[in-house]
Each structure stands twice: as structure tokens, then as C-alpha cells.
């Protein structure tokens, strides 16, 4: 399978690049002049054929002090880019709210996998989600006995390896569970 599939993938990839070029000539110039990825993929790490489009989004945000606030039901598009990029998003709860953190992406059959973690205000990891699908989710709720105490928390998004690069979309859902007996 690989030969034919790879050829198709490369063709599709080329098509995408052409489309991007037509849509954004300035981006084309940037790529050509800049990073050398244009002639590239000679990078040897096997990850170079795909270049995320959202590398600038919300940076710098690698530390809790520079984390990007994320609010409910407003997905944010960002990217994990080379060099061990980590993206931190902050949110606060009042102690009575169920929370669901979701990060979606295309893992490209695992070659561009992203993992997430929930951190407390001090940066301690409370929970990780590190599967191999195109989505990572962390839910903390009253029903599960995992309700978060009032305070500030962080969603940490990072690549499976320091070489991982990929676009992703992060979202936060917050709800208040019904009182007992209802
Ligand atoms: Ca980033
Ligand atoms: Ca970052
Ligand atoms: Ca993962």
C-alpha cells in the first residue's frame, strides 16, 4: 500500500500548497524566502512536510504567566510548533461548575499527535489526556466526584515529542450541575 498511498498523499499535499499559494501570495513569499522548508523536507526528521498555519497564535504562551485566557464555548485555534512548543490556556471556576476541556487536531496517523494536561494554579498536573486519536478531553465534574475547587486552572497543550508540530483547536465548556435530587 505505501507507494500508491504515499504518491496520492504527496499529490494532495502539493495541491493544498498550491491552493494556499493562490490564496495567500504573501505567505508563499515568506515560505520561499524564509525557513527553507519550501525546498525542504530535507529536514530529516520526517515531520517537515506539514507546516502548521497558526504558529504565531497567542504566542508567547509557554508559561503560566503568559497563558491565554480561554472562555466557555469560544474555541481557540493555535498550533504546536517546533522547539518544544507548549501552549497554556487559563480559566477560572467558582467551585460549583462542571468543566470539559477539549482539544481537536489531525494526528496524521499519530505522526503529529498532541497531548494535553490540566494544571492547577501552581502548575501541578492534575490530570492528563494522552491518547492517540484526533481529540483529547479532560472532564472534571460533580457526577464523577472530580469537581474542581474554586480557583484558576490551566490547560496545557504540547506535542507528543519535541519535534511534533500541528495545528489544533482548544475549547472549554462549563456548566453547573443540577442540585441533588433533581
Ligand atoms: Ca503555539
Ligand atoms: Ca507556545
Ligand atoms: Ca495524543
Keywords:
single chain, Jelly Rolls, 2 domains, five-stranded mixed sheet, four-stranded antiparallel sheet, 9 strands, 32% strand, globular, binds calcium ion
Task: Give a structural overview.
17% of the residues lie in helices and 32% in strands. It is of the alpha+beta class. It has 2 domains: 2-33, no CATH class; 64-175, Jelly Rolls, CATH 2.60.120.380. The longest helix has 22 residues, at 2-23. The radius of gyration is 19 Å and the shape is globular. One calcium ion binds next to strand 2.
Helix residue percentage: 10-25%
The proportion of residues in beta strands is 25-35%
Listing every helix as H and every strand as E from the N terminus to the C terminus, the arrangement reads HHEEEEEEEEE
Number of helices: 2
Provide mean pLDDT, rounded: 81
Head-to-tail CA distance between termini: 55 Å
Tell me, what's the shape? Answer: globular
Give a quick account of the main beta sheet: strands, pairing sense, barrel closure.
5 strands, mixed
Domain unit count: 2
Structural class: alpha+beta
Examine the coordinates and then state which fold CATH places here, giving the name of the CATH topology of the largest domain.
Jelly Rolls
Bound molecules: calcium ion
Radius of gyration: 19 Å
Residue stretches low in confidence (pLDDT < 50, at least 5 long) are 1-44
State the CATH architecture of the largest domain.
Sandwich
Major beta sheet, strand line-up:
1-3-8-5-6
Q: What's the CATH class of the largest domain, please? A: Mainly Beta
Amino acid at each position: 500500500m505505501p507507494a500508491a498511498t504515499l504518491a496520492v498523499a504527496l499529490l494532495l499535499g502539493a495541491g493544498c500548497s498550491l491552493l494556499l499559494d493562490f490564496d495567500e501570495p504573501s505567505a508563499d513569499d515568506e515560505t520561499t524566502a524564509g525557513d527553507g522548508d519550501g525546498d525542504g523536507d530535507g529536514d530529516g526528521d520526517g515531520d517537515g512536510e506539514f507546516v502548521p498555519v497558526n504558529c504565531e497564535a497567542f504566542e508567547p504562551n509557554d508559561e503560566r504567566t503568559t497563558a491565554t485566557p480561554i472562555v466557555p464555548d469560544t474555541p481557540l485555534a493555535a498550533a504546536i510548533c517546533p522547539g518544544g512548543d507548549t501552549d497554556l490556556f487559563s480559566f477560572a471556576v467558582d467551585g460549583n461548575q462542571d468543566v470539559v476541556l477539549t482539544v481537536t487536531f489531525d494526528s496524521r496517523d499519530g505522526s503529529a499527535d498532541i497531548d494535553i494536561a490540566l494544571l492547577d494554579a501552581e502548575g501541578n498536573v492534575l490530570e492528563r489526556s494522552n491518547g492517540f486519536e484526533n481529540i483529547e478531553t479532560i472532564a472534571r465534574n460533580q457526577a464523577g466526584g472530580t469537581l474542581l475547587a474554586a480557583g484558576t486552572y490551566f490547560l496545557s497543550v504540547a506535542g507528543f515529542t519535541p519535534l511534533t508540530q500541528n495545528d489544533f483547536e482548544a475549547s472549554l465548556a462549563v456548566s453547573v450541575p443540577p442540585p441533588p435530587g433533581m
